[in-house]
Amino acid sequence: MIERKPREVSFTEQYGENAQSVMDAIPDSSVDVENEVVERMEHQEVHKIISKLEPEEKLIIYSVFFEGKTQDEVGRIMGISQLAVHQRLEKILEKMHQMLL
């Protein structure tokens, strides 16, 4: 009796139009899941702390760190000097640091 070898089928042949969605469902081993979870938890903690700041403090934090504005730009918006923004930013960051502890 002649043994028949199973025919090799390519991935695309096997899954057809669904090949890409199957590939998308396979986890990317280059992604460090633990690190991703830790980063998301840290982001949540930072946003929770920001929510407890005074409105002016939130404005400075969001403007500088989330909108990419310079301290000079923030100063013009708020009607204060760049130096005042810098000093307030230092105090806000220290306050946030204390809230994390």
Description:
The chain is mainly alpha-helical and 101 residues long. It contains six helices and no strands. Helix 5 packs across helix 6. The longest helix is centred in the middle third of the chain and has 19 residues, at 33-51. It is elongated. 5% of the residues are buried. The mean pLDDT is 86.
Walk me through the topology.
Blueprint (H helix, E strand, L loop, with lengths): L10 H5 L3 H7 L7 H19 L3 H12 L4 H8 L3 H19 L1
Helix pairs in contact: 5-6
- Element-level helix/strand string: HHHHHH
Structural class: mainly alpha
Shape: elongated
Biggest sheet layout: none
Distance between the ends = 76 Å
In the predicted model, the low-confidence regions spanning at least 5 consecutive residues are: none
Q: Into which percent range does the helicity of residues fall?
A: 55-70%
Q: Work out the number of β strands.
A: 0
* Average pLDDT, all residues: 86
Number of helices, where a helix is a run of at least 4 consecutive DSSP H or I residues: 6
Percent strand: under 5%
Radius of gyration: 26 Å
Question: What's the gist of this structure?
Answer:
With 101 residues, this protein is mainly α. 69% of the residues lie in helices and 0% in strands.
Features:
101 residues; mainly alpha; 6 helices; 69% helix
